[in-house]
Amino acid sequence: MRKISQYSFVILFCLICISSCKNINSDQASISQEDVNDNSKDPKAVVIANKVMDAMGGQQKWDDLKYVSWTFFNARHLLWDKQNNRVRIENTTDSSLYLVNLDTGKGKKQSPGKLVLSETNQLAIDKGKSIWINDMYWLFMPFKLRDPGVNLKYLREGKTLTGIKCDVLELTFDEVGDTPDNKYEVYVDQSDNLVKQWSFYNRWDKKEPSAIWPWDNYKSYDGLMLSADRSDKKGPSNVKVYDTIDEKAFTDLAEFKFYE
C-alpha cells in the first residue's frame, strides 16, 4: 500500500507541475519578442496589459474602429476619424471649433466670427491637439498601455476605493504627450481584466496621488468595452461609434451635429 501511495503522489506532483508550466507558457506566449526586447515594459505588466486589451474587445476590434464621438466633462464634443487620425472638437465653453489632422499637424480653428488657419497661427492648432491628447486618454487609456514611450511596470496587488481586488500597474512616460512628467497607477480588476480605477500623479516622483478616479459603467460599443458616464459624473459621456460619417465633419467649419 505504501508503494502505491508514493507512486500516486509522484503522478499527482507531475500533473501539477505540467499544469503550472502550461500557465507559465501561456503567459509567455502572450508576450511578443518586441516586448521581450523592450526594457521599458515589465513582462508581468505586459501580460496584464494584453489581458486588458482582450477584455476591451481585442486588438483587431480596436484597429478596426472607424469613427467615435463623445462629450468630455460637458465642456467639449469630440469626433474622431480613427482610420485617418482626424478630429473635430467643438468647445462649448467659448464656442470655438477645431478641425485637426493629427498626423500632419495641420487644420483650422474657428472662434465666433473668426477663422484661423494653421499657416498663420500654428499655436491655435497645437491647442486643438493638446485638447485631443487629454480628452482621448480619459476614454482610451486602457488600449494604450503598450504604446511606444510608455514605461509599464507591475507594482503590487491592491484594491480600489470600492474594494475591488486588482493588479496595480504604473505608467510613466519617455518624452511623449504634453505632460511626460505625469505618472498613473492603473487598477486592473483580477476577475474580468478591466481597468476599474486610476490614480493621477502630476510628477513621476510624487508619493501621493493628486486625484483618484473610477473607471466603471462599462458598456459594449459595437464590440468595444468602454467606460463612460461614470459614477463620479466626470470624464467622457455620450459615447457613440459609427461606420460612416459625412466627410464634411472633418473639412467644413459649418455646423455639424454629431451629438445630442
Q: Would you summarize the structure shown here?
A:
With 260 residues, the protein is of the alpha+beta class. The protein contains five helices and 14 strands.
Write up what this structure looks like:
The model is unreliable at 7-26 (pLDDT under 50). The longest helix has 28 residues, at 2-29. The chain has a single domain, classed as outer membrane lipoprotein receptor (LolB), chain A (Clam), CATH 2.50.20. The chain is built from five helices and 14 strands. It has a seven-stranded antiparallel β-sheet, with helices on one face. A five-stranded antiparallel β-sheet has the order 7-8-9-10-11, with helices on one face. It has helices at 2-29, 33-37, 43-55, 59-64, 122-140, and strands at residues 67-72, 76-81, 86-91, 96-101, 107-111, 114-117, 150-159, 165-173, 183-189, 195-201, 211-214, 218-221, 224-227, 236-242.
Strand order of the largest sheet: 6-5-4-3-2-1-14
The overall number of domains is 1
Q: Which CATH architecture?
A: Clam
Give a quick account of the main beta sheet: strands, pairing sense, barrel closure: 7 strands, antiparallel
The low-pLDDT segments are 7-26
Gross morphology: globular
Proportion of residues in β-strands: 25-35%
CATH class: Mainly Beta
